[in-house]
Amino acid sequence: NAGVTQTPKFQVLKTGQSMTLQCAQDMNHEYMSWYRQDPGMGLRLIHYSVGAGITDQGEVPNGYNVSRSTTEDFPLRLLSAAPSQTSVYFCASGLSSGTENSPLHFGNGTRLTVT
Amino acid sequence: AQSVAQPEDQVNVAEGNPLTVKCTYSVSGNPYLFWYVQYPNRGLQFLLKYITGDNLVKGSYGFEAEFNKSQTSFHLKKPSALVSDSALYFCAPGVHGGSQGNLIFGKGTKLSVKP
Lengths: 115, 115
What we know:
The structure holds two protein chains of two kinds.
Chain A: E1 4-7, E2 10-13, E3 19-25, E4 31-38, E5 42-51, E6 54-57, E7 64-66, E8 76-78, E9 87-94, E10 105-106, E11 110-114
Parallel strand pairs in A: 2-11
Antiparallel strand pairs in A: 1-3, 3-8, 4-5, 4-9, 5-6, 7-8, 9-10, 9-11
Chain B: E1 3-5, E2 10-14, E3 19-21, E4 24-26, E5 31-38, E6 44-50, E7 56-58, E8 64-68, E9 73-78, E10 87-95, E11 109-114
Parallel strand pairs in B: 2-11
Antiparallel strand pairs in B: 1-4, 3-9, 5-6, 5-10, 7-8, 8-9, 10-11
């Protein structure tokens, strides 16, 4: 079982460059989300989606775009990278309904450095 | 507004001793709570959950947690720690009927178990 797959594992960008972090899940989960993890800050929600064609902002959405054209994929786009976006990014998926009974499944993360 | 606190950045215990990782929360409504564990260079993994019912919840790897409504706490415990338990632990409360996007994570507590 692949679960939640994130690519790439590591990325270095220069300020102003753009890139897309990929996330795919094979569990037919309706819900997908992106978090960033920074030292001392825990996990902060960037964007989430409750199904194909539906996205919403989380706690820290500025500087990031998302789209959800299929159930399986939920890419995260950085249009113009900034050093403040240096972080470890995690994609997660879960069932949309009965959220209290559905733990999230996490990918192994993408470590992004912006210089 | 929801909030969660993990008051200890790090917990150090000797192998074989009991361990406790503390979590307190504040939610508007009936809470449900998760504990997740993160091993180095990996995503978070589900450990256990409290939904309703018995206040003592048992989870993976011999961990358990006690829900205390009056103290709004959900402390993670294990009777006998193993070196392999060393990891980062996250408490995550949500609200019954809320969406996955309302799940928030604590800042994490690093557990270090020494031989």
